[in-house]
Design brief:
The complex is a heterodimer of chains A (309) and B (317). By secondary structure, chain A is of the alpha/beta class. In chain A, 41% of the residues lie in helices and 16% in strands. By secondary structure, chain B is an all-alpha fold. Classes of the chains: A alpha/beta (309), B mainly alpha (317).
């Protein structure tokens, strides 16, 4: 056996591989090395992100962010969105990069975005690192209330250079929200909350999922003049004990509209809501996405709560 | 010995009675069972009682199936969940849900078929010319389980997101979807199944010595095998169709019963059924109450107790 030769073969192979990697690596750096002017901004998590001053290739990894980017007039800069992004209609013709939980990283890189918008950083740590290594900025925008949606819209306007349009939009949305709001905050003493319309939001029928303490909908229901009967339940979208649900006796039930969630759970058959016919379906997209259409949701909830009072 | 048996029957039935009573008295809502009115009445009769009763039947089915599979395969690690039988039933249930949603009976029927197919496959894979050993059986079970899991994942990916949420919970073993119809069906299966399996206990006892020896005693080994596989699949199928894959019940319950009374299947099978009912009823009481008003899937509770037990058994073997 001629180990010497083999050894040198390996060495040669290593050298070639190394050279290839180095060559491609250098090319990579060249391509992504910013000729463009950049600046530093802070995202919603307080991370410092370096972004080009002029953004014209962006990817959104959440339907709510896609809707916000369109709303502030920068929809034409989106080169990639998720398969869940179905609003506005223009999203249909934008490249799909997988869904929010399992985006296709190769596809994202192939689209050569300058920036990728994500709604949460928790599950995406490794992913974020990979993108940043490619010179792609990752911006976390995770609005968790109507006010934070307004803030995010202004930040996005700033980022995309559509500040004027964003400000106009936010003042418009703010006005509509003020019209609809009854401003009951959860800080008010329990005694004063007794007269509020008691609302149950049914996310799915069986198993019975609802909104909990940490969902933005809990606050939205309060803003609309009602009170979520599950506002003390930990987490954002808990699976609720049917016994507890039956004992809650809500005045109004909202169904997040989907094929298997068209009726109130049978555990509510004796509740005021079912007896008085106050069970309403709401478009699942507008109540599940903390985006500009959250104001539509607020208006619809407020309207329903006013009915038959 | 005879007196002992009667004593154990009495102890087990009393334990089941106490577990059922305790379990219907405890829940996320505080109810007074002697003063049930309006909503409390609905909570007690429409929600809590069906769930507790279904839990008992599911536990009985899984433990009886586990006990007899262990005797038949001469292996204390034979368990419906670990052998892939539960996953076969789960896949069957999902197929029924996707394609025949409107028929209530499609789910248990497909679950039964899925359980049967999985059992048969694992048995064929585990058998070798040298007979069947622990490693081969457990390995075959793992392979069939993971293969079926991947098909389940594929199916859930094809279903839309709203339906998927229900399934991921259900797959872990969840009794919250209990209905009286589901209970009647599972009750029928668990009672009849346990009686049939107990009727095969004597041949099973002989087969535990060795299949060849059993044949010498006039046992129709092939027939016993078919009955046990068939009935175990029926029991697991109906249990899974009603509550998803509640794991480890068929492993730890028969084991504890054997520790207490020895390995005579005429006792192990029926006693396992009753003890299995007690175990699942108590586990589900925990699942319903520990994080109330939220809930855990009961399968998470049984696995938390069962998995360490499995490791212990594997080491002891």
């Amino acid at each position: 056996m001629d180990f010497g030769l083999k050894n040198s073969n390996y060495k040669l192979a290593f050298l070639i591989t190394f050279a290839v990697i180095a060559a491609f690596g250098c090319r990579g750096v060249e391509v992504s090395s910013p000729v463009l002017e950049t600046r530093e901004v802070n995202d919603d998590l307080g991370r410092t992100v370096r972004v080009p001053v002029k953004l014209d290739r962006a990817i959104s990894l959440a339907p709510s962010l896609t809707e916000m980017i369109f709303a502030i007039g920068a929809g034409d800069r989106l080169v990639g969105v998720t398969t869940y992004c179905n609003y506005p209609a223009e999203t249909a013709s934008i490249e799909k990069i997988g869904d929010t939980q399992t985006p296709n990283i190769e596809k994202i890189i192939a689209l050569r975005p300058q920036i990728v918008f994500v709604s949460t950083a928790s599950q995406l740590e490794a992913f974020t690192k990979t993108l940043e290594d490619q010179g792609i900025a990752v911006y976390v925008s995770n609005a968790k209330s109507l006010d934070e949606v307004f803030q995010s819209l202004l930040h996005l306007g700033e980022l995309f250079g559509t500040k004027g349009k964003a400000e106009e939009l936010v003042s418009n949305l703010n006005g509509r929200a003020d019209q609809a709001e009854h401003v009951h905050t959860l800080d008010e003493p329990t005694a004063e909350r007794k007269n509020f319309t008691r609302v149950f939001v049914q996310i799915s029928n069986d198993p019975l999922f609802t909104i909990g303490r940490d969902s933005f909908l809990t606050e939205l229901v309060a803003q609309a003049g009602g009170i979520s009967v599950t506002n003390d339940v930990p987490t954002a979208y808990p699976k609720l004990s049917k016994e507890s649900a039956a004992a809650m006796n809500p005045d109004v039930i909202f169904l997040s509209d989907s094929e298997d969630n068209r009726e109130a759970s049978s555990v509510f058959k004796d509740s005021g809501a079912v007896k008085n016919g106050r069970v309403y379906r709401i478009n699942a997209d507008i109540i599940s996405r903390p985006g500009p259409r959250l104001v539509d949701a607020l208006e619809e909830i407020a309207l329903r709560l006013e009915e038959k009072k | 010995m005879f007196k002992n048996r009667i004593a154990i029957w009495i102890i087990l039935i009393t334990a089941l009675g106490l577990a059922l009573i305790l379990s219907v008295l405890i829940g996320s809502e505080r109810l007074s069972p002697f003063d049930l009115s309006g909503t409390d009445r609905a909570i007690f009769f429409d929600i809590r009682l069906p769930r507790v009763l279904l839990g008992a039947c599911v536990g009985a089915s899984l433990a009886a199936a586990g006990a007899s599979l262990q005797a038949l395969l001469r292996n204390p690690l034979a368990e419906p969940y670990l052998l892939g039988v539960s996953n076969g039933a789960a896949l069957g249930t999902m197929i029924a849900f996707v394609f025949f949603e409107q028929f209530f009976f499609a789910r248990p029927v497909f679950a039964f078929a899925g359980a049967g197919l999985a059992t048969f496959t694992v048995y064929q894979m585990a058998r070798s010319r040298a007979g069947m050993n622990v490693e081969r059986l457990v390995l075959s079970g793992v392979i069939v389980t993971t293969f079926l899991s991947s098909i389940i994942v594929l199916l859930t990916s094809l279903l839309d997101a709203a339906r998927l949420r229900g399934f991921t919970f259900w797959l872990l073993g969840d009794l919250s979807q209990a209905t009286m119809n589901g209970f009647y069906l599972t009750l029928g299966a668990s009672v009849i199944g346990t009686i049939v399996l107990t009727s095969q206990a004597r041949p099973l006892n002989l087969m535990m010595i060795g299949e060849r020896d059993a044949m010498d005693f006039g046992v129709e080994v092939g027939r016993v095998r078919m009955i046990v596989f068939g009935i175990a699949s029926l029991l697991v199928g109906t249990a899974v169709a009603a509550s998803g894959s509640v794991g480890y019940v068929g492993l730890i319950v028969p084991h504890l019963v054997r520790l207490a009374i020895g390995s005579d299947n005429r006792l192990v099978v029926p006693f396992s059924a009753i003890a299995g009912a007690v175990f699942v009823v108590l586990a589900d009481t925990l699942a319903r109450t520990v994080i109330a008003p939220r809930e855990l899937p009961v399968g998470a509770v049984t696995a938390l107790i069962g998995a360490p037990m499995f490791i212990y058994l594997l080491r002891k073997n």
